[in-house]
Specification:
By secondary structure, the protein is an alpha/beta fold. It has 8 helices and 8 strands, in the order αβββαβαβαααβαββα. The strands form 2 sheets. A 5-stranded parallel sheet has the order 5-4-6-7-8, with helices on both faces. It has a 3-stranded antiparallel sheet with strand order 1-3-2. β2 and β3 form a beta hairpin. α1 packs antiparallel against α8, α2 packs parallel to α8 and α4 crosses α6.
Amino acid sequence: MGGFLGFTKVDSPVVKRKEPKMTVEVDIKALLESGAHFGHKTSRWHPKMAPYIHSKRQGGHVINLEKTVEALDKALPELTKIAASGKKVLFVGTKKQLKEATKTAAESVNMPYVTVRWVGGTLTNVETVNRQIKKLQDLERRMASGELEARYSKLEVQRYQEEIDLLNERYGGIKDMREQPAAIVVVDAIQDKNAIKEANTLKIPVFAITDTNVDPTSIDYVIPANDDAIKAVELILSYITAALKEGEAKKEA
């Protein structure tokens, strides 16, 4: 079954237990060492990020990492709850230098992801997206079974493989997503503003790393940090995946 339109939810019996204290602890020193505090030039700032800015230094803004810790302390328990409920979180990171980090984080917790480019309607036009996912899965099945190789020439099979590769590039990270995600995690709020817009339309909570040049108005959980520093993004993603793993463990329990 392909795409989240085909998903049928079956409620599981709920066993009430005392929930353990959250174990994911955010290290402000590690954030500092990763360069999470470096914002953009003061000329590029967005005034609505003012509450998250500590000071100015050498023509650039310095992000208040105490605010970053507060934001993560607020966001992480919510992500744990989502994972504990068995729902999915969609990771979005199409900025070139952050694609691999986003994909690695999502795959580590078995969550869907988009890292090549955001296809318009990924969330809001699911019928069209599902048709493409179904086509991809059908072609992959026929290729794996040897059906295409048996029926077509080598050149035609090669063209089918190229089509499979293209579809996987666009939809590979979400082809097993059976339902609408319960939240999206965005690593660059400007690069993937269209993903945020679609999530807003569907009232899907948005968790986003938010640099000093971002308008945070449309983001439910603002995580103020440098979205250009790979180490900073990887560190924040590690906190997010730890929270999701904790939720998964609670679900299993």
